[in-house]
Amino acid sequence: MGLQRLDIYNIRNIREQSISPSPGLNFIYGKNASGKSALIEAIFLLGRAKSFRTSSIKSVISFEQDNLIVSAQAMQSKGGNLHLGIQMDGKNIEIRINQQPSQKRSDLAYGLPLQIIHPKSFELLDAGAQIRREFLDWGIFNHEENFLSVWRKYKRALAQRNALLKTRAISQLYVWNKELDNYGTMVNEYRLQYLQKLKPVLNKTIARFLTLRDIDIKLISGWDTARQLDQLLIEDLEKDLRYGFTHRGPHRGDFHLSIDNNLAKDVVSRGQLKLLVTCLKLAQVELIFRERDTFGCILMDDFAAELDKENRAKILNYLSEIQCQVFITATEVDDFGDLRSIENYKMFHVEQGKVRWINVPCGTSL
Ligand SMILES: Nc1ncnc2c1ncn2[C@@H]1O[C@H](COP(=O)(O)OP(=O)(O)OP(=O)(O)O)[C@@H](O)[C@H]1O
Ligand SMILES: [Mg+2]
Q1: Is residue 17 a part of any domain in this protein?
Q2: Is the CB of 13 under 6 A from ligand 1?
Q3: Fewest CB atoms less than 10 Å from the CB: which of 25, 117, 326, 358?
């Protein structure tokens, strides 16, 4: 699965551009503010129906324009083309898959699995738990078709219970405790199984980039799973009523990545943190590949940030080995390093929102 053609309208300073990317690596370079991240943002929007930089789509739409459009033709692993399109005006979203309108963002996410690594990605290990839960749940979503409906049922039950806590409608709480117990236990089980699958792949990936001792990844469930969740919810009633929300359940879940029994974020350097996050994300891609025999695109914005030359070369080697389409940005061509041994790549230069293909014969460098 890879994008064969990408059309972008009205994303930040990119007004109207079409590119035909390589199915392998795509290098994108240009000065600050030329539009590199805007290009990455366009692809991300197509797969996730949201920006990775802002929650306000209005700020992504080019100034003085009403809406943005991204569409692409993608080659599927089993042959055949998939047409994907999204139009957004800040309020409404229109999604089209093979010319048919679709209501579901999840159809896009499943049709074009995307993984992104950008300068703020270190937050995966350094910020609050929400981002880690999203990481786990996105991975599971790509493997288990029933997961999304279970997760939605859990979220609905949680919203109902929290609303009842606020109005102190205690008599109705017990029904929702049961629902939370039922779906919450299922969500937790999915997460446990997923981490078990991810762990060996992650260890292998980390070994390629870092020499760290005793790496472990452990699920934090969000409650003491030796006990029934609904029992704990009854015990928590007073506290939950006081604060107006549910304190325990998988919505408080997390995972801990530790090195020699210390939380990774507390003991590694900035560059190592970026490498660890990159490994987590690449391990997730590899798992999807193994099970679905396909992947969409890996997006790496600001490739050189935090990484030294040696580590950049290691990452490029890895990316050129896997059968995956990758888009990588940097301000200077030199930041990509020596590309002579890399086959099947395309180079693009971005200037004032215009994306131009630079023909670099294979086996040479710019
Ligand atoms: N809604 C918008 N409409 C038009 N231009 C915008 C909009 N939002 C941001 N811009 C401008 O788009 C340009 C490209 O921004 P972008 O973040 O893509 O740059 P970049 O090439 O990634 O730069 P850097 O190397 O600094 O990361 C910037 O000049 C930015 O100010
Ligand atoms: Mg940028």
Answers
A1: yes
A2: yes
A3: 358
115 lines ligand 1 (CB under 6 A): no
Question: Up-side HSE of residue 127: CA atoms within 13 Å toward CB?
Answer: 12
Tally the domains of the chain: 1
Q: Is the pLDDT of residue 283 over 90?
A: yes
pLDDT value for 235: 97
Query: For position 88, which CATH number holds?
Result: 3.40.50.300
Q: Please spell the DSSP secondary structure of 37-49, one letter per residue.
A: HHHHHHHHHHHHS
Q: Is residue 232 part of a domain?
A: no
Structural domain including 329 reads 1-113+322-366
**What average pLDDT does range 47-67 have in this prediction?**
96
Give the H/E segment covering residue 8. strand 2-11
Tokens 């990484």, located at residue: 307
Residue 42 sits at φ, ψ, to 5 deg, of: -60, -45
Q: Looking at the CA of residue 63, tell me the nearest atom of ligand 1.
A: 3
Residue nearest to atom 17 of ligand 1 (CA): 37
Helices 147-167 and 173-209, packing angle to 10 deg: 130
Residue nearest to atom 8 of ligand 1 (CA): 12
The reported pTM is 0.95
Ligand 1 atom 31 nearest Cα: 33
194 lies in some domain = no
Residue 265 lies in a domain: no
How far is the C-alpha of 67 from the C-alpha of 28, rounded, in Å? 25
Mean pLDDT of the chain: 95
Which of the listed residues 11, 37, 329 should we mutate to test ligand 1's pocket, taking the one with most ligand atoms within 8 A of CB? 37
The answer, yes or no, to whether any atom of ligand 1 lies below 6 A from the CB of 51, is no
For 230-246, letters b (16+ CB in 10 Å) and e give bebbeebeeebeeeeeb
Q: Which tokens belong to 251?
A: 């919505």
